[in-house]
Model the fold of this input.
Amino acid sequence: MILHGYWRSGAAYRVRIALALKGLAYEQVNHDLRTGAHTDPAYATLNPQRLVPALEVDGLILTQSAAILEWLDERFPDPPLLPVDADGRAIVRGMVATIATDVHPLHNLRTLKALRRDFGASEDQVNAWMTHWMTEGFAALETLIARHGDGFAYGATPTLADCITVPALYSAERFGVDVAPYPHLVASAARTAALAEAAHPSRQPDADA
Amino acid sequence: MILHGYWRSGAAYRVRIALALKGLAYEQVNHDLRTGAHTDPAYATLNPQRLVPALEVDGLILTQSAAILEWLDERFPDPPLLPVDADGRAIVRGMVATIATDVHPLHNLRTLKALRRDFGASEDQVNAWMTHWMTEGFAALETLIARHGDGFAYGATPTLADCITVPALYSAERFGVDVAPYPHLVASAARTAALAEAAHPSRQPDADA
Done:
């Protein structure tokens, strides 16, 4: 397996966490989003969206982190990262989407670039924008994790939800967003991060020194 | 089952399509997003994110359209809306996420409100913003559907991908985005829409006259 990523991409980090939790070996091809390396035509042939991550497996190209996480869990089911029952799976997938659809796309690199380009957004405005969407999503997740968690976001073992919360909190820390109001979220993510240290952005081959 | 929705919510529309394709009966409770009815404290108890849709089933509350779609397909597998093989499922889920994470959250009602509020975005700027994200996502989907579709977005029967493309094209039409460059996307969505006419926004009980 080849993971196309970028050390600081929150979406690539999700996939690295799942790979780490499952103990899977993989190669990395990294694309520096800051210099636009992912817009290279050769990469666009692989991934028409020209985003990271993408997972290359025996000629098959999988895109979108949430879809890759599901595929990894189906193909490498040990340890499972989804509950055994449909209702539990729906709760976990709802947690995943809370971040993956309603928080992260609103503050990832390309969106922030567009805010600066299209609206002349200042850094203060960009920070307020990011903080707004993170705190909205984190507050909802805190309620859900308090309701369904037992050490991890859902139940007593890591799930796909934890693969998503860890990068979300990494972003929050990076941008100085206060996460003290979300103790269940913070504790469950910290427990997962400790199980997947090799996945941390700072430990990737393309990380800034 | 009770679907908490709003006639013009693209995310609620996705769920209505899946319900229609599976021939499932359900009740509707609609929340007028324009007047902020979804921020009512009673609804926040049900759905901490205070967004639509949510699906209420025997006391269980499911949130996030992508998670609800997966749950419906697991609980009511006939007709199936995901391919039988893991690789195919990953492609379909990637298509779903292309719209659900990288297009729709950037132009839904709350995001456009925030652009106007935080950056004083004009209507021309808002329209250019929406057009930008839609055309980025549609172009990628067009490539994927040309590659994997056979009448529908993936293969020869509707999948969760089609549940997502139909509302995406409804939004494009509503906001005057040119979809002529995406013939595979348009044709597959039209075929699905014809199978799920009851799900159309204009046919919902809370629709504007």
User: Anything to note?
Assistant: The mean pLDDT of chain A is 96. Chain A touches chain B through 49 residues (CB under 8 Å).
